[in-house]
Amino acid sequence: MKIDPDDKTDLSAQIAGAIREEIMAGRLIVDARLPSEAELADHFAVSRPTVREALKRLAAQSLIRTARGAFGGAFVNRLSYPEAYGQHITTSTLLLSMNRVSFDVACEARYALERACTPLAAERRTPDTLATMRAEIHRQAQPGLTDEAFCASDVTFHRALVDSAGNPVLSYQLAGAVEAMQPLMNMITFTARSREAILGLHTRIADALERHEAEATQAALGELESYTLTLGRDVMAARARPKG
Amino acid sequence: MKIDPDDKTDLSAQIAGAIREEIMAGRLIVDARLPSEAELADHFAVSRPTVREALKRLAAQSLIRTARGAFGGAFVNRLSYPEAYGQHITTSTLLLSMNRVSFDVACEARYALERACTPLAAERRTPDTLATMRAEIHRQAQPGLTDEAFCASDVTFHRALVDSAGNPVLSYQLAGAVEAMQPLMNMITFTARSREAILGLHTRIADALERHEAEATQAALGELESYTLTLGRDVMAARARPKG
DNA sequence: AGACATTTAAATGTCTGACAAATGAAAATT
DNA sequence: AATTTTCATTTGTCAGACATTTAAATGTCT
User: Fold this and answer.
1) Do B199 and B205 meet the contact criterion of CB atoms below 8 Å apart?
2) Which residues touch strand C (CB under 7 A)?
3) Which pLDDT score, from 0 to 100, does residue A243 have?
4) CA A64 – C1' D18 distance (Å)?
């Protein structure tokens, strides 16, 4: 585990990289204890603050956790699903919001991925995921709901749809696509009319899943994509026009 | 932008969280300059090393970049696709390797996602992505290839397939699924016989894409999934047996 | 006036040394 | 034996200092 003395980049970045390599290569396994900060400082011939900066970088990626006290220290962290979700959602959301990704492209990606889940979801949906979807449908029918709350409920509904596939890896991968769309969706003003249309499609999806009908689910999801695309395009077109 | 004085967690984590919030909420926009480390230390009533640890956490997530010199400082970073890819792949790979995710579950997720790309890929594949796929097929036919090199080539092939869909958001989301499978695939010993089978399916996929035939692509991909699953199960079964 | 060299202020990068706080093991005490 | 105390270890935080980098500002020469 060494660093390049000729490298111009930050020492803390180099050290973090070296340790990250060890973890990803499996040479540092889960729950293994790293040397103490003082020992690491000695090993890399740097000061303790520099080592600490490196460790904080790793902690930010949930690669390590630290504990104070006599037998504390930095330990290789078992990356949990919630931690991975958080990382993925943060990255996905910022990628979309910072790169002028068009509504169309984001929407296409999201629905393509969701469609990938429907055959599995129709087969494996549980009473639990169905109940979540029904509850969100009910919430979305409340007239007093703000647009933000409607969007948030929409996200919960779609996550339940994805979770129906019963594959945690799939859920993790989809989390980024679904959640990252929310800021874009939040730009849309949902009229009573559009809410009604979406609600109807959500109901069709839930019904089809309940009856284990993959094709019907797919069809309703396809219509939802088209409709969402229309709503989004209207908003984007209005924004693009001068004078607003 | 404040921190909770009652919070027990690290000050640097709190400060990083506060700044991250500002970025994700859009109150700190791309290329905006953060206050200098001294000013931040003053603002949060902490020392400069603590502020630096917070900034390193954000840098680890590519949320900020720093520059030295008179008009340097920390700037909100526009998250690029390559940076996002890297984050996603790191997280996905570790999630799979640290959580005893079964080969079946990972494989199912990966191929479900890839299938989501095939209709778009068949429609939009370019000479460029096709050329990449052909080149990798050619490489995979070399007899001297190690198992690791074969796997790496396989990843490149599948990424070209995903890129054929012409949707960068989709490519980004899929990168995690495809790359994270590689360590699991590396456990497999590819015999001449299995390489031949995979090669044949890869060729069928490339041919079908070239002819814009979505269904044929889908079918070949489905067979590849079944075959991969068989190979993986054999390996895992052998590993599970005592005495090896 | 314009081109080039020099200075300088501001910022990050790094180091040293120190103290506080937490933590679990070991020793001392009841 | 159970409980309390002590103690070494380790991370968390702070203060102050110096090194390095950078671009603007200044000075100098043609």
Assistant:
1) no
2) A 10-12, 45-50, 53, 67-72; B 34, 36-38, 48-49, 52, 55, 66-74
3) 60
4) 32
Given CA atoms A172, A176, A177, A182 in this order, what sign does their dihedral have? Answer: positive
List the single protein residue with the shortest CA to C1' distance from D14: B47
Q: Tally A–B CB contacts below 8 A.
A: 159
Nearest to A80 by CA among B99, B84, B179, B100: B99
pLDDT at position A99 over 70: yes
Residue B41: predicted pLDDT? 98
Last residue of a domain, one of A33, A53, A76: A76
Of A109, A167, A168, the CB nearest to B170: A109
Q: Is the pLDDT of residue A244 over 60?
A: no
Helices B103-124 and B168-180 cross at an angle (nearest 10°) of 150
pTM over 0.90: yes
Give every CB contact of residue B110 below 8 A, 6+ residues apart in sequence: B177, B178, B181
Q: Does residue A4 belong to any structural domain of this protein? A: no
Q: State the angle between helix axes of A48-60 and B11-24 in degrees (0 to 180), rounded to the nearest 10.
A: 50
**Chain A partners within 8 Å of B24 (Cβ):** 90, 93-94
Contact B174, B162 (CB under 8 A): yes
Residue A109 lies in a domain: yes
Confidence band of B243 (pLDDT split at 50, 70, 90)? low
Sign of CA pseudo-dihedral B226, B229, B231, B233: negative
Residues B197 and B130 in one domain: yes
Q: What is the mean pLDDT of residues B198-207?
A: 98
Task: Mark yes or no for CB contact B101/A167 under 8 Å.
Answer: no
Same domain for A57 and A90: no
**Tokens 């999630």 sit on residue:** B95
